[in-house]
Amino acid sequence: MPSEGAPGPGGGAGRARLDWLRSQGLGVACGLCTVALLGVGSFVLAFTREGASAGVAMDDARAFFRSPSPVHAWFYVLVPVLGLYALNTLLATWYSVTRKWRAGLRSPSAYGAAVMHLAFLVALLAHGLGGFFGTEQGEVVVSRGWSALPGGSEVRLASLEVDALPGGMPREVRAAVETRGGETGPRAAVVGYNQPLSAGLGSDLWLLGEMGRVPVARFAAGPERCGAAEGGSCDLAGLRATLRRVVPPGAFGPQPMAQVRLESAGTTVERWLPPGGVVEMGDAALRLEGIGAEPAVVLRGRHAPGNPWALASAVLLAAGVAMLWRRFLPPRREKAAPDDDVDPEPEAASGD
Amino acid sequence: MAREEFGGAAAPGYRPGPAMPVPAELAASSHPVLNALLWSAAGLYAAAFLAAAIRPAWGRPVLALGAAVHLAGTVGRGLAIEFFPLTNKMESFSAAALSLALVAALVWRDDRLHDLPMAGAALAAMAAALAFPQHLAWPPPLMRTVWYPIHVPLSFLAYAAWAAAAAAALAWARDRDAAWLSRLDRRALWGFGLWSLSMIAGGFWGVVAWGAYFLWDPKVIWSVILWFHYATFVHLRLTPSLQGRPWVRPALALCGFAFVLVAYVGTSFLFGRSSHAF
Ligand code: HEM
Q: Pick from A273, B109, B131, B178: CA 20 to 30 A from residue A169's CA?
């Protein structure tokens, strides 16, 4: 156990400072400060939600600095306190682990606390990455045809299954999607409630939002066919057809109309077409076969670079708890543990 | 399962409204046998509470019987909705009561000052549960994940372990016996271990449901507060400057239980809105 305050055998002011920095007393002080600051913060956030905290969403930490406010003093103090807490934990763990190792302790339970400490440090890192580098990627309507995702990949809906309970509430939703392009390449996945489309160990996520039906245009060019939902596009006969917008019957005449953009080798053409309408472009002729409503899902995107680190922290935390199993037992059996040097107090017998 | 493929006949689309429709069959039903089990459990908790006040040695079997009846009622509700039966405030308070009763029966010491608050806490949580209608309801789709039935029981058992630590603190304040400190430390550590695992499950759920394991939300912030409070707590025993101050751990165990109350019930009432509000 680290000594507290008292200089180590090396003596000197530097040594005393190091002893203080890794002392248990400083750790306890940082812990209690963290509790108090977060407690204050929870009330401040709740009562300034429409004001100074209006920009604070999800796990974002940048909002506290974007429009600094004195009511967020708790957060500006919390950051250095957590920094000191982390340094203290790191030094204390290093000291305790090296000392135990040198003393010949090899039992995993002797290192459970160290693993927990590591989990804490990795969790702090995750919060920093997520809080300062995470971004919301907006919403994308995914239906027939390819919809572009930020980062260069595209996604489309292959099928949508909704298992509804009596009364209509969905029990399960299975939206089969396909992606192509971007870093991950072609891929098929199922998205549902609690089942996002995920890449990079959760650092990029597309979460199921709403489900419904959206206007979809079906195109034909010679024997080739493809369909695109409003805002999406599809490829056929060397062309890329994008359905920009659909207006219902009545707006421009008795028929619905689709605003279609065609792209091919650097040329772009944009037209309003009724069902059956044709646009010519180079050698190809594109026909709007029909406009209908088809199933669609809304996916909400998040770039959350802290998530893989949080996963690592979770693994360490669970491992730490498991390694400490002996400490959960009543002292009678615990006394048999030769590696338990962390308890400076004689523990009285207890029958719990 | 309704399957919508492209190009086929237009299948009816589903668009969830702002409020999830409550399924008619279940909303109306409030199962008489399941309700009777809950009310019987409440009666047994009340009897255990009285026993703790009058003759503590009789309290434990009564409380254990109450917990067994309560567990049966809870399992029955789970079978009825085909899921983990914690979908509303009634079921939440009921699960809190069940955890408190189980842990109280486990740590019962035939000691009025120690047992009475534990039985009282179980009884109070059960009374709060029964103040709400006992209707059965389907869980909303976002609850349907394996993380949920892991997250919640672990949290409630941690709350109960910390309640037991606070009960040991009361007993220590009376007779200053180091045995109470030892129990207090172990119960706080149990709570911390269970809470750590619960935070892991909650974090996984947060990622798959919202895309984030942490939110600036009262319930989540208070969960982190509890974690830091008890992480600090488990070090107090190892802190040289606190060796001569045995009252610090009991004091912080009581303070910790106050934090538990804020985290569990306070976040629904003190803060306006929370991601965890039912
Ligand atoms: C910030 C300052 C901290 C310091 C100086 C510190 C130091 C220590 C030391 C020296 C030990 C006992 C020695 C050992 O077994 O290696 C210990 C045990 C422990 N620490 Fe920490 N720690 C800190 C923070 C944390 C945090 C944030 C956590 C949360 C994960 C944590 C969790 C634990 C646990 C669970 C134990 C075992 C307790 C027991 O056996 O009763 N510590 N800590």
A: B131
